[in-house]
Each structure stands twice: as structure tokens, then as C-alpha cells.
Amino acid sequence: xxxxxxxxxxxxxxxxxxxxxxxxxxxxxxxxxxxxxxxxxxxxxxxxxxxxxxxxxxxxxxxxxxxxxxxxxxxxxxxxxxxxxxxxxxxxxxxxxxxxxxxxxxxxxxxxxxxxxxxxxxxxxxxxxxxxxxxxxxxxxxxxxxxxxxxxxxxxxxxxxxxxxxxxxxxxxxxxxxxxxxxxxxxxxxxxxxxxxxxxxxxxxxxxxxxxxxxxxxxxxxxxxxxxxxxxxxxxxxxxxxxxxxxxxxxxxxxxxxxxxxxxxxxxxxxxxxxxxxxxxxxxxxxxxxxxxxxxxxxxxxxxxxxxxxxxxxxxx
Length: 317
Ligand SMILES: Cc1cc2nc3c(=O)[nH]c(=O)nc-3n(C[C@H](O)[C@H](O)[C@H](O)COP(=O)(O)O)c2cc1C
What we know:
The chain is an alpha+beta fold. It has 10 helices and 10 strands. The strands form 2 sheets. The chain has a 5-stranded antiparallel β-sheet with strand order 2-1-5-4-3, sandwiched between helices. It has a 5-stranded mixed β-sheet with strand order 7-8-6-9-10, sandwiched between helices.
């Protein structure tokens, strides 16, 4: 087995010169540490001929990007006389960008004095660009997922929560109320004489009316412990945690007034404007209370509100 001492200086020089990576040596004893050697790999990677760069500090490869954090890391390592590895944004002779995975090591003489630095440059542009692309794809995917889950939760016409989301929220809030021994309230609402409205004004006006009313309802119940949703055609529902019958009555009455105040004309309704009927229930649930039983009670209250002439609120507790 030959020992390193058996390898001739000429062979070492050939091996260094023909390495595919860039290999550079700078003189640490001269001001600003100029390059005194660059190999063929460096010339190929950067497009610069050795004669153009020898005698210069290698920072010229950074172009105008000398403020990048990796340069600071490099600067400090050289100052401390240590090696380091960084990825730098560098520019070829033709101005094109490449990512340089660069490591540097001090070379010491027999007196332990740093006389030179040796640098090894590797063009890792393909790897960095692939990582950047992957990161962007991940971001795009996360945004698309968010958009998708929003779409899955919302009603296509009015933009407020849909029935599926409402059912999930009702289930979750009921469990919380059961665990915490607090009250839960459910409202069911119907647009009054909506079929007549559609027949008279047309479906486009009907859609507009549904959207306006939906937005009004959703704006009235915005807390994280509340959910307002379009439950069916012209039917809306609200669930609210920790709301007494008195509070529910108050908010439901306000809502009824707000919808009338939208002032959407409805010739075939007794009030002459669009209105809603609201039925609601507020109770402290037992272990046997189910989402279906709450909805049934709220539906019964809505039926009663309609029986009382519509455009009114009926709350049971
Ligand atoms: C041997 C050697 C090779 C170097 N090669 C590169 C290089 O390929 N690309 C680069 O951006 N910087 C390279 N540098 C680093 C710069 O020359 C310089 O040290 C760095 O920009 C930090 O110092 P500054 O803040 O004074 O510019 C090299 C340094 C040495 C000593």
C-alpha cells in the first residue's frame, strides 16, 4: 500500500486540477487574501479564466449579492482562522446565477501559522432550485387545501356555513355544553312566503334575497361558540353555546327586525317587505340530549311562530 508521501507533487497537482469541483487557493498572508490558484473545475463552473481572477479576492463572484447572510458566516470563520461550509448565491462570467456550496479550510505551515486558505466549490443550483420548487408546491398545496376545506364548509350561493358544517358544529357545541353543564341554544328560521316571492320576482331576485338574509343572520352570530348556516332552501339555523332563553329571545327579535330593515320589497307578504319567522330553544342538555332532539324542538318552535302569523319569534326553554 503506497502512503500519501509516495504520491508525487505532480500527481497531486494533476488530481487537484482535474477535479470536477472547483478548487481555489488564496494567500492568507497578502492583503485581502487574493487567489493564487484556481483549477479547471472552477473555470468551467464560473466561466472565468484563471488569468482573469488570480490576484483578486474571490468575492467578485457575489456580484451585488454581498449582503447575503452566508457571506457574513464566511467572513467570521476566516477572521477566526476556521473552516466552514455555506451555500452562496454567485454569478458566472455571463451574469447567470448559480448556487455555490462552498467549503473553506485554513492551511497551516510547520509553525502552525495560517498561510493559505483552500476553497472547494460545488455547483448545487439544480438541488437548490428543486428545493425552492418543492417549497412553493407545498405552499400552493396548503393554500389549495385551505380553500377546499372552506368550500366544503360553505354554502355555494350565500357564502355562509352549509348544513354539513352546521351539523358538525351542533354536535361539537352540544358535547361542550354537556361536559360543562352550560346551556345551548338552537334557532330555526324560514323566509316568509318565499315561494310567492320567487314566483313574483323570479329566481335571480330570490337568490339575491337569500344571500342578503343569510349575511344578516351570519353577521348576528359570529362568535367562535356560534354557527349560523343555510340549512335548506329558504331555511336557516343557528347554534350558540351558553346562551339563555332571555338572551336568545333578545337576539332573535333583533334579527327579525334587521331582516325587515333590509327593506327588500315583497308585494305578496302582509308587511310588504321580506321577513323571517324564528323558532328557538335554549336548554341545559342532559346526557340524553341529541342534536336531533334539539333540532326537533327548535323546529316545533318555528312551526308555532308561523302559526302565530309569521314575521315573529317564538322561543321555548
Ligand atoms: C480560498 C477562498 C475561496 C473563496 N471562494 C469563494 C467563492 O467561490 N464564492 C464566494 O462568494 N466567495 C468566496 N470566497 C469568500 C470571499 O473571498 C470572502 O472571503 C467573503 O466574501 C467574506 O469576506 P468579505 O466580507 O470581506 O467579502 C472565498 C474565499 C477564499 C479564502
